[in-house]
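Quick illustration, no need to memorize.
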Amino acid sequence: MTAADETEYRSIWKHLMAVPFRQDWIDVDGIRTRFVQAGDPGRPAIVMLHGTAGTWECFSPNLMAHAKHFNCYAIDIVGSGFSDKPDKDYEIDVYVDHVRAFMRTMGIARASVIGVSLGAWVACRLAVSHPAIIDKLVLLASSGMIANAQTMGSIRSARTKAVENPTWSSIKSIFDTLIYDERNRIDDLVAVRQATYRQPEMKRAMEHILCLQDPEIRARNLIPEDDWRRIVAKILVIAAPDDREEYYNTAMRIRDLVTGARVVEMKQVKHWGQFEKPDEFNEISLGFLLEAD
């Protein structure tokens, strides 16, 4: 390995090695929930929510910067990662209830939320249904407004293939739609995802996770425009022109519907702008989160 190669090497641990943090599991209303915490517990809280069938590791490049100012929690939401996988469909209210219960269990009365894709959808539903517990929202690959049959079919196909035959190549292909630059589809991410998909209970859990890719189920879970207009939390939306069109269009529509919502573009990223360009994202996110009300 050359010196140039070494400076470009990325791993989850390289992002975390200088961060005081703890990983643990906690019982959340009967659901054993995996989480990581970093930052002063006396500071305002941030909850970080990953996307479909993901894990908290997608936020590994963001913990150090945010933990300097906030008490950060990144969790494996119910059914995903190494959290418990109850045998029922995971519609949006199931995720909302899990996040609320996690906050209650950890003694978090109010938090800002950083959400990616499904995590952004859950964050927005929390802001609609439980405004008192939400401070600010930072959204990437914003979801919950549009149903695109092609995208839904692609998500279902890739995740089903990966969980039924969790080879390195089938898992790695998932990241083609999440991460723009091949160099950022690092082995660590593939290895973590492969380990979660190899859990014996994951095949059944994936069926429950993918219920939101069913047109009828998705339709009843989408957030109506009138509900978007009711959101009082301050919102920052990261719009990625190089991601699928519906996510970019959702970002722009949120700006139109939610009073005061702002949009910032990040180019040459897809779903995971927070992972692909962490320095850029962290600066944008913290500028918004630390802004005086």
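The chain has one domain: 3-289.
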